[in-house]
Write a structure and sequence with these properties.
By secondary structure, the chain is α/β, with parallel strands linked by helices. It has one domain: 3-Layer(aba) Sandwich (Rossmann fold), CATH 3.40.50. It contains eight helices and ten strands. Strand 2, helix 2 and strand 3 form a beta-alpha-beta unit. Helix 1 packs across helix 2. The radius of gyration is 17 Å and the shape is globular. It starts with a strand and ends in a 6-residue tail after the last helix. The structure holds fructose -6-phosphate. Fructose -6-phosphate binds next to loops.
Length: 258
């Protein structure tokens, strides 16, 4: 796991560099997209590069991580609406190139199986962008999630509904109780995972992710078992990292081994 402690306003460009490099070598790469506030600067930075003609997603495909169950299509808080607004509509993906799980599918269990199959038939995810919840969830894999889990229906934790009420005009009751989410096992199959966390509220989750015992209590700790994970955090999200000095030193020295 590579830990990069960087100024919040540089994180978007650092990840956009990785994405541009991937697309240069592989224009038909498969991206994994997270919704929420954490990846916004990444999407801004990639959209700016596409706007300047420096990179293109015209041949790329993408899969989102998760979706609420039961929000009407086009609902402003539906993750499909959010990712279209925050990213897809601002870049040059081909029509139909971005897929997300359908939280209104008549058979949610069949939808989950079909979603995993679609990711596999696309050749798997080359670069997966992740945020992390204050309770250590990635996608909507709440504490207690199986490390082997596949895309499935989950019940949202009370803390996640409280955290996400800000997108529902502060009304926690308006936040759906269930979601469809890629499983931890599904996410672990991505070839490169880039997790972004900023703000003091993420400090404990980041500490557990990087330095805690691997446990379903903090689902993101499964990433310690992945061979290629980059964790980008700002100073406040890094505040509880015991080995922060080492991570800073290693990052400053990276040019010596690349
Ligand atoms: C969203 C997702 C979630 C978020 C997490 C952090 O697709 O998978 O795991 O990444 O809840 O959300 P933000 O970035 O809004 O703090």
């Amino acid at each position: 796991m590579e830990v990069v402690i960087a100024a919040e306003d540089t994180i978007g460009d650092l990840v956009a560099d990785e994405i541009a490099e991937l697309l240069e070598g592989r224009p038909d790469a498969v991206l994994g997209l997270a919704t929420g506030s954490s990846p916004l600067r990444i999407y801004d930075a990639v959209a700016a590069r596409v706007g300047r003609g420096e990179t293109s997603l015209a041949r790329a495909r993408a899969f989102t991580l998760d979706e609420y169950v039961g929000l009407a299509p086009g609902h402003p808080c539906s993750y499909r609406t959010v990712i279209d607004h925050d990213f897809v509509s601002r870049v040059d993906f081909a029509p139909g190139a971005v897929r997300g799980p359908d939280g209104n599918a008549p058979d949610l269990f069949a939808e989950c199986r079909a979603y995993d199959a679609a990711i596999a038939s696309a050749g798997g995810v080359d670069l997966q962008i992740l945020g992390i919840g204050t309770d250590g969830h990635i996608a909507f894999n709440e504490p207690g999630s199986s490390f082997a889990s596949r895309t499935r229906v989950k019940t949202l934790a009370a803390q996640t509904r409280i955290d996400n009420a800000r997108f529902f005009e502060g009304d926690v009751e308006a936040v759906p109780t269930h979601c469809l989410t890629q499983g931890l096992g599904t996410i672990m199959e991505a070839r490169h995972i880039v997790l972004v966390a900023t703000g003091a509220g993420k400090a404990e989750a980041v500490h557990q992710l990087v330095e805690g015992a691997v446990s379903a209590r903090w689902p993101a700790t499964i990433l310690q078992h992945h061979a290629r994970v980059t964790v980008l955090v700002d100073d406040v999200a890094a505040a509880r990292l015991r080995l922060a000095d080492y991570y800073r030193h290693a990052y400053a020295q990276r040019h010596l081994v690349r």
